């Protein structure tokens, strides 16, 4: 029933809703449940209609990470649309609009579904303002629990976790005028999670449009545009910077693999990200305190 609502925007018969409320999803295998989520998220025109049926029938109790979103307040200046559940519903539909039929759609949709699952455990009202500090980081383990309970593939867990952890980055990087070093370091983190800057920007765009602020209603996300333009300018929108200094460069200098070996490579990587240098000798000269040979 949730599938039909999401795909065809159909309204459920009240008697059918009552019947569905008695279902025990715990009797289904994790793989079966994951398959149903995939269909709802990837085939649904408005996935929020499907998740709303799960909520109204009480079936959302089988997905406590999502059920916890209902009633969690948000700062009205940033989220005039309502609580976390309302926002999540809007984000789901926005993400569906941003799907392009490619291989990234699955991560995008599950990322949208789970992007704020850290808010229920981090939200507090301080000095009259609602804040959720660290909800992005806290949400990674919660999202993983949701997916792993359904025996989701490791790559999906990894990618969705990366989107959850970094979904605020595009807006924050633009707002804070992040340095090139910051962008390069983020590109490395995204690569480790098998993500690209383009996919992260799409996730952030869905998050931004899934609210009722003036700029969101105007379909404007200049921070996302700036973020992606900067990533492209640095040539790291699809892959991280290639390490200029490799193990062979250290071996050529008479060094032997070991703990110090790895530490030197990491320092070289950090210097490369900070300066943009790509000459191994220049980087090693700085790190080792010696002149290029």
Structure characterization notes:
This protein has 293 residues and is mostly helical. Among the domains are: 63-166, no CATH class; 247-288, no CATH class. The protein has 17 helices and two strands. It has helices at residues 2-8, 14-21, 30-43, 47-56, 64-67, 84-98, 105-114, 135-149, 154-166, 169-175, 180-192, 197-209, 214-217, 222-233, 247-251, 259-275, 280-288; strands spanning 124-126, 129-131. A two-stranded antiparallel ribbon has the order 1-2. The protein is elongated. It starts with a helix and ends in a 5-residue tail after the last helix. The mean pLDDT is 92.
Got a strand count?
2
Q: What is the topology, as strand order, of the major beta sheet?
A: 1-2
Low-confidence stretches: none
Rg computed from alpha carbons, rounded to a whole number of angstroms: 22 Å
Average predicted confidence as pLDDT: 92
Shape: elongated
The count of helical stretches stands at 17
Helix percent band: 55-70%
What portion of residues belong to β-strands?
under 5%
* Structural class label: mainly alpha
Secondary-structure element sequence?
Answer: HHHHHHHEEHHHHHHHHHH
């Amino acid at each position: 029933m949730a599938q039909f609502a999401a795909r065809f925007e159909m309204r459920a018969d009240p008697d059918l809703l009552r019947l569905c409320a008695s279902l025990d999803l715990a009797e289904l295998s994790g793989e079966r449940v994951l398959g149903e989520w995939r269909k709802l998220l990837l085939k649904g025109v408005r996935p929020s209609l499907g998740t709303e049926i799960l909520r109204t029938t009480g079936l959302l109790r089988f997905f406590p990470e999502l059920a916890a979103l209902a009633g969690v307040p948000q700062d009205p200046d940033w989220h005039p649309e309502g609580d976390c559940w309302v926002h999540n519903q809007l984000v789901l539909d926005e993400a569906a609009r941003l799907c392009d039929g490619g291989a990234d759609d699955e991560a995008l949709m599950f990322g949208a579904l789970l992007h704020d699952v850290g808010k229920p455990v981090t939200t507090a009202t301080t000095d009259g303002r609602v804040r959720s500090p660290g909800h992005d980081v806290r949400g990674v383990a919660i999202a993983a629990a949701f997916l792993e309970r359904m025996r989701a593939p490791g790559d999906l867990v990894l990618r969705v976790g990366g989107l959850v952890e970094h979904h605020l980055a595009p807006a924050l990087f633009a707002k804070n005028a992040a340095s090139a070093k910051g962008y390069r370091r983020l590109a490395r983190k995204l690569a480790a999670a098998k993500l690209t800057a383009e996919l992260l920007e799409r996730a952030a765009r869905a998050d931004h449009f899934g609210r009722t602020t003036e700029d969101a209603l105007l379909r404007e996300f200049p921070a996302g545009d700036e973020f992606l333009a900067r990533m492209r300018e640095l040539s790291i929108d699809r892959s991280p910077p290639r390490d200029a200094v490799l193990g062979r460069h250290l071996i050529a200098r008479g060094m032997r693999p070991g703990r110090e070996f790895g530490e030197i490579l990491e320092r070289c990587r950090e210097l490369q990200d900070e300066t943009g240098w790509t000459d191994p000798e220049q980087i090693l000269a700085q790190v080792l305190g010696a002149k290029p040979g």
